């Protein structure tokens, strides 16, 4: 079967309701833990089949947001998602958690399994179904606004992903003009997007209050399934980034400006890492995919057949097209045991990063496809990003194939981006804590707060006084802030883990890739901290973790001669 052959199925709520009743009855009639476990497995399979159908709708819609059939299906799915939670998942979870055989079930499926369901129950209630639907409607509205971007630039029309290429152009004037065109879009939609965000913040806060939380922060963490850390650990972690990483990144940005021979670098200059241009991959999409196949064949006995599987079943949609949603993602279709990768290739180094990053995610999905119950196949997001970001580093030995004599430049840029990303990532997180702890501030106040946080973590950024960015508009391009509150920090937590893998690769630690494959195979059977331990890495929250992790990176940059670029 190929992806195109997968039918578009919209779940029928009446049937789901009947099924849900049946599962519940069977579960409650069962007279032993073993019998209940059997029902749990059946329920799990059914639930993930439905989830798959909803995911297929979402993929089809993001592939072509302008298609009325998919628009309609997505609108229907937006309504169905919370209803299905309410009818099917939550009542069953509640029954499991209050089962007379609870302790035995915990022995069979593990404590983590129970904690996952507890987080689901604690973050949901029938009284918030309408609010969740409202939240989904707002997100669809947001997505429509940004995907419909048609930005004129030098006689052509581009969407946001396509235009991004010009913001890293060699020519300063092009960078400036393209950045201006890019930000003009957000400035023009400032009020509209600001209103959508304000509505999102309020509907989320309303849900938190209904569920008995002080504000949305705790609920946001629970929605992400975080069962082994909270906002306090994250705050301490952000402080570590500020103290141990910001000095390193400040130096890297200074060095970058020196390489570019720009005395007064502006915000649009930092998209260009090297004076004669960022490294660009050699060849078009087909060539890059062939190179990726060779890389995965050579990497290990497991990765080669996996990548062939992805190609054979058409599970990569890589080209940028009009109407296609922006960005890139990997998602998993458990009914078919298919990972799916979505990207917007634009001829930059980012294309290669998709072939390593998103493929890292899908490799994990593929490795864990036989784990049952399926709720344990995939871990929480910060752990998922370890699979993808570490794969980017395990791919280093093959970057010569992708970049030719620009290989060294790519490695330099890649590592540099990995580190400079950390302060940005925590800035996004700090901003969101402010937003949800102070839900009633105005859009203007949010903008101002962003600018304040930006100055703290990204002091190199300079904007024209009084411009949209100077007033704090930058966060509006970050879709995670709208779509998935508190998610963004996960990329940085994972990056800190991936950098530890990177350090082990530098030290020629043979066990590094074995540990990597191990955490791909165990999927979501453990919570974040335990997965990190299983990988033989330090947990980012532990004090001193950042200092140690950054040490080798600092040395690597001291030894890298960037005057040759
Ligand atoms: Zn990712």
Helix and strand topology:
Elements: H1 13-29, H2 33-63, H3 68-97, H4 102-109, H5 111-122, H6 129-147, E1 151-153, E2 156-158, H7 160-164, H8 172-188, H9 190-210, H10 216-223, H11 231-260, H12 285-299, H13 303-312, E3 316-319, E4 329-333, E5 338-345, H14 349-367, H15 381-394, H16 399-403, H17 407-437, H18 443-457, H19 479-483, H20 489-506, H21 511-522, H22 528-534, H23 545-559
Parallel strand pairs: 3-5
Antiparallel strand pairs: 1-2, 4-5
Helix pairs in contact: 1-2, 1-3, 2-3, 2-4, 3-5, 3-6, 6-9, 8-9, 9-10, 11-17, 11-23, 12-13, 14-15, 14-21, 15-20, 17-18, 17-20, 20-23
The protein binds zinc ion (ZN).
What percent strand?
under 5%
Order of helices and strands: HHHHHHEEHHHHHHHEEEHHHHHHHHHH
Average per-residue pLDDT, rounded, comes to 96
Strands of the largest sheet, in order across it? 3-5-4
Class by helix and strand content?
Answer: mainly alpha
For the largest beta-sheet, the strand count, sense and barrel status come to: 3 strands, mixed
| Amino- and carboxy-terminal Cα gap | 46 Å
Question: With helices defined by DSSP (H or I, 4 residues minimum), what is the helix count?
Answer: 23
Regarding quaternary structure, what we see is: single chain
Rg from C-alpha positions? 23 Å
What is the tally of beta strands? 5
The molecules bound to the chains, other than polymers, are: zinc ion
Give the overall shape: globular
**Helix fraction bin:** 55-70%
The low-confidence parts are: none
């Amino acid at each position: 079967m190929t992806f195109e052959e997968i039918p578009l199925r919209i779940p029928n709520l009446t049937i789901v309701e009947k099924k849900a009743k049946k599962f519940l009855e069977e579960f409650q009639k069962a007279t032993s833990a073993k019998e209940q476990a059997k029902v749990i497995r059946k329920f799990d399979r059914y639930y993930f089949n439905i989830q798959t159908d909803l995911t297929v709708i979402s993929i089809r819609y993001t592939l072509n947001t302008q298609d009325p059939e998919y628009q309609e299906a997505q609108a229907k799915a937006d309504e169905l998602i919370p209803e299905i939670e309410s009818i099917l998942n939550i009542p069953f979870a509640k029954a499991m958690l209050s089962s007379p055989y609870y302790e035995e079930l915990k022995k069979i499926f593990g404590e983590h399994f129970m904690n996952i369901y507890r987080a689901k129950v604690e973050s949901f209630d029938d009284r918030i179904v309408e609010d969740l639907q409202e939240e989904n409607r707002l997100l669809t509205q947001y997505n429509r606004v940004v995907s419909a971007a048609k930005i004129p630039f030098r006689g052509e029309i581009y969407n946001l992903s396509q235009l991004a290429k010009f913001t890293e152009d060699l020519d300063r004037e092009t960078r400036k003009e393209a950045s201006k065109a890019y930000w003009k879009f957000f400035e023009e939609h400032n009020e509209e997007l600001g209103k959508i965000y304000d509505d999102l913040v309020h509907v989320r806060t309303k849900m938190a209050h209904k569920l008995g939380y002080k504000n949305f922060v705790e609920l946001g963490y629970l929605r992400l399934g975080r069962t082994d850390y909270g906002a306090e650990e994250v705050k301490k972690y952000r402080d570590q980034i500020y103290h141990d990483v910001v000095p390193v990144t400040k130096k890297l940005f200074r060095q970058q400006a020196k390489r570019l021979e720009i005395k007064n670098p502006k915000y649009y200059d930092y998209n260009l890492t090297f004076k004669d241009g960022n490294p660009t991959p050699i060849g078009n999409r087909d060539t890059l995919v062939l190179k990726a196949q060779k890389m995965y064949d050579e990497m290990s006995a497991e990765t080669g057949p996996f990548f062939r599987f992805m190609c054979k079943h058409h599970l990569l949609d890589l080209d940028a097209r009009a109407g296609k949603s922006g960005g890139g993602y990997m998602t998993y279709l458990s009914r078919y045991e298919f990972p799916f990768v979505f990207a917007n290739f634009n001829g930059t180094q980012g294309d290669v990063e998709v072939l390593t990053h998103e493929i890292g995610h899908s490799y994990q999905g593929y490795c864990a496809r036989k784990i049952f119950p399926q709720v344990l196949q995939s871990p929480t997001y910060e752990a998922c990003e370890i699979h993808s970001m570490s794969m980017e580093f395990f791919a280093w030995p093959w970057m010569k194939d992708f970049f030719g004599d620009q290989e060294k430049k790519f490695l330099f840029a890649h590592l540099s981006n990995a580190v400079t990303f950390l302060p940005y990532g925590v800035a996004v997180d700090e901003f969101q804590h402010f937003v949800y702890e102070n839900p009633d501030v105005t859009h203007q106040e949010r903008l101002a707060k962003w600018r304040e946080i930006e100055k703290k973590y990204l002091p190199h950024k300079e904007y024209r006084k009084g411009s949209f960015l100077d007033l704090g508009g930058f966060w509006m391009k970050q879709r995670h802030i709208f779509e998935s509150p508190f998610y963004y920090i996960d990329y940085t937590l994972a990056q800190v883990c991936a950098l530890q893998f990177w350090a082990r690769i530098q030290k020629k630690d043979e066990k590094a890739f074995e540990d990597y494959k191990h955490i791909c195979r165990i999927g979501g059977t453990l919570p974040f901290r335990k997965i990190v331990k299983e990988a033989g890495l330090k947990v980012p929250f532990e004090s001193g973790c950042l200092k140690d992790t950054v040490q080798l990176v600092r040395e690597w940059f001291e030894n890298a001669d960037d005057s040759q670029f």
